[in-house]
Amino acid sequence: MERPDTYKTLHRPSEEILYKDRKSKFYAQVFPIRSEDDVKPIVEELRKKYHTANHVCYAWQLGTENPIYRANDDGEPNNSAGMPIYGQIQSFDVTNVLITVTRIFGGTKLGVGGLIQAYKTAAQMALENSKIVKKIIKSQYRLQFGYADMDKVMRIIKQKNLDLVSQKMELDCDFVISVRLSESEDVFQIFDEMQAVAITPIT
Fold first, then answer.
1. For the domain 6-135, what is the CATH superfamily, name and number?
2. From the first residue on, what is the mean pLDDT of each consecutive set of 10 residues in the chain (203 residues)?
3. Out of 19, 76, 81, 104, which could bridge 122 as a Cys pair, Cβ 3.0 to 4.6 Å?
4. pLDDT of residue 3
């Protein structure tokens, strides 16, 4: 079976949505993220923005093949906030995203079941309100070769419609190419069979 070489994510943060339940307000938003380091500043910014908020709960996921994720209840009962939010990330099949749900308590306790429902619904509404885009997973390779082989290499890059990420030309040529995951084995083989070209994957 071929590995999928696309994934769904967001280009830009979604609009914020408001979900209300028994006077509690739940403000939900989805953010695209590139690494775990992006999470803390966003959450801190929300704490400043909603300084009366009791909880800023969130979940995030990064990666495509073996994604990593975290879910944070921020003081709500165990698994009543972060996991229901994370469930919506799975349900919408998105990655490289952070969903935050900021709660301002309205005076009436919702109970664990009510909280799970509220956080799940707020996260779902935020995702429904997001512009989800499809991105292609690519592999990168370094090509090293002499000037004599430049034409051959360039011909394959054009034929296969490969992205040339960088090129250094000093004593020899040093190119970095980007290849769609589903085509990477073929492309690797083509260059690997060329005697004068060294190809190495960039991890």
1. Impact, N-terminal domain (3.30.230.30)
2. 76 93 95 94 94 94 91 93 96 96 91 94 95 90 93 93 90 92 90 91 82
3. 19
4. 58
Residue ranges of domains in the chain: 6-135, 138-202
**pLDDT at residue 1, rounded to an integer:** 44
Sign of dihedral through CA atoms 47, 12, 65, 202?
negative
Residue 95 and residue 47: Cα distance in Å, rounded?
24
Q: How many CB atoms lie within 10 A of CB 75?
A: 11
- According to CATH, the topology of domain 138-202 is Alpha-Beta Plaits (3.30.70)
Q: Are 121 and 19 in contact (CB under 8 A)?
A: yes
Q: Is 178 exposed, middle or buried (0-12, 13-18, 19+ CB in 10 A)?
A: middle
pTM: 0.77
